[in-house]
Amino acid sequence: MSREGNFYAETWREGHWEPIPTPKRSKDKQIPVACVYPGTAYSLYTALVGYERRYTYPFWHTEPIVPIAEPRGFPDDMNLLYKEAFFTGLTDSFLIKRLYLTWFLVQEVIDYNWDKKFPPWTGYVKRQYASLFKDLGSFPEDFPDDEGVYPNPGKNRGEVSWIESYREFVGYGDWFIEELLKLGNPQEVRIIFWLDW
């Protein structure tokens, strides 16, 4: 089952939060507009809120990523349109965690330690490709896409190790930050986030 992220933004203006982008109108009613749409970017959701699903991490991962924010529900001072449009009465901690419902300032995404490194990872590849892995560097870009990394030694396999940063693991971090910066001052823009059930 795929789960897509919902991203709605609000900006701090004149002492209160206002929705951005400008809501649409339909039959004299305002409709919230999502601020960014990354689809099923599971590794991004892992960095944002600690989302885990089967196969989130390859077998060689030794520790989970440290997320930007744990699920903490809707902010108490959320703008009125969002309060009316979203089910803000949701206070059950189980459902908040199940939906990964949280919020964060854009500045928190920028300040996140995207360059933090995971502990070294070990796997096994065909011996002819083992030389591509050098001195605990990043996973080699020239490793063939149709070749595998295996959890166990085998005939004609060599042990390799590499280090990966959060940025490399997520893959979407820079694009995501660029999209969020289009919304305004990162210290005054807040993102409301949850995953579809």
Low-pLDDT ranges = none
**Number of domain modules:** 2
What percentage of amino acids are in beta strands? 15-25%
Distance between the termini: 9 Å
Strand count, sense and barrel status of the largest sheet are: 4 strands, antiparallel
Structural class: alpha+beta
| Element-level helix/strand string | EEEEHHHEHEHEHHE
Q: What is the CA-based Rg, rounded?
A: 20 Å
Tally of strands = 8
Inertia-based shape: elongated
Overall description:
This protein is an alpha+beta fold and 197 residues long. It folds into 2 domains: 5-114 and 166-195, no CATH class; 121-162, no CATH class. It has 7 helices and 8 strands, in the order ββββαααβαβαβααβ. The chain has helices at residues 42-49, 80-85, 93-99, 106-111, 127-130, 166-170, 173-181, and strands at 5-13, 16-20, 24-26, 29-31, 102-105, 121-126, 157-162, 189-195. The strands form 3 sheets. Strands 2-1-8-5 form a 4-stranded antiparallel β-sheet. The chain has a two-stranded antiparallel ribbon with strand order 3-4. A two-stranded antiparallel ribbon has the order 6-7. The radius of gyration is 20 Å and the shape is elongated. The mean pLDDT is 89.
